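Hi everyone,

Forwarding the result from last night's run.
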Amino acid sequence: MSKTLTTVLLLLAPLFAGAAPTGKTYATSGDCDGFPAVALTTAADLCVGLVAEGLGHARGVAAIDDDVFVIDMVAWESRNGRLLKLSRGGRHAPEVVLHGLYQPNAVVRGPGRTLYVGITGQVLQIDPYAADAGKSARVIVDGLPTTGRHPVPSLAVGADGALFVNVGSFSDNCRPPGGHLPDPKAVCPETQESPPRGSVLRFPVRATTWHAGELPPYARGLRNSMAMAVLPNGKLAVAVNSRDGINHADPKLSDAELPHDLLIVLQPGGDYGWPYCYDQRVPAPEYPGFDCAARLAPDLLLPAHAAPLGMLLYHGDRLPGLAGKLVIGYHGYRATGHRIVAVALDEHQRPTGTPGELVTDWHQRDGSHPQGSPVGLVEMSDGSVLIAEDHSGTLLRLSRKRR
């Protein structure tokens, strides 16, 4: 095991050491397909059930058969993050599989019955069923950035087994320390790092560790692509968290309305313009003379500050009207956030139309539920969708109402 790995890992623990209660809990009433129902507004014939609470700062979620794995970041900048397992679809109490993880964020299923776990600086592959899960761990990708506003990676696995990794931006919009504006005539320095900030990387399967800067980026000019999903044609769809504070650079622009977050099906080698451009190839106020026509445009504009952090392509038929659609969680705490939506794909597997709301009415309501903060999404074998929420430390289940 590498020295860098042993600095962040890893002990197998047989018992669950639950996080302290946060007070951000759900009141339940009635049944949602076998789980206690929570008071959220859903699309017709759907409901949301409460699977588990007390999961700390719950981020990514993955499944192997009927076992559910949840990342507990614990807190930002923590080196005590955990990987939890909840068997029988979440019906069993959680166990700690790994702990001592550096600011973990993402977990996805890897080859066989393994998992990829994205922590700050690295991607690990582990066997969660090994007698000692820590000793099973190996570093798949090393050398990811550990600094700035967006150091935590998100992950997706292609049909060919290749691993996609998001590299978020260091700054909000290439703003140097001290609140100064960037030089409009200079290249943004963080886009020249190795790997470039604001990019998505792709690593084919191999037996040895990849260094994050070893290959050219799969796509770039993407401020923070936290939500990723692989489409049936093998292309990668990403939902991008766009900048804040555009009005600080140009008071005539509305921070409440601009810029939009973005939904994009990536073209390999494509450059989508961050930090020089926003929305449909509009020059950023810091770079008013930039030729954004030379950059690629997004496929669909999402609401400003929706903050999409999780996305999946729905394959099942349990949830009516969702087959073949993208399901996206908006984590944002402004009016556009805290909801789950669905986006249709056209015959070319491009996003189309207006996002349809699946879960809403997720505003803070004392005695009923906290404000929604969805992060990880995973489709289970029964067609339900599990939702991990970080600020409330809960695992919810979107399913069809029983008749």
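Confidence is low (pLDDT under 50) at residues 6-23.

Cheers,
N.
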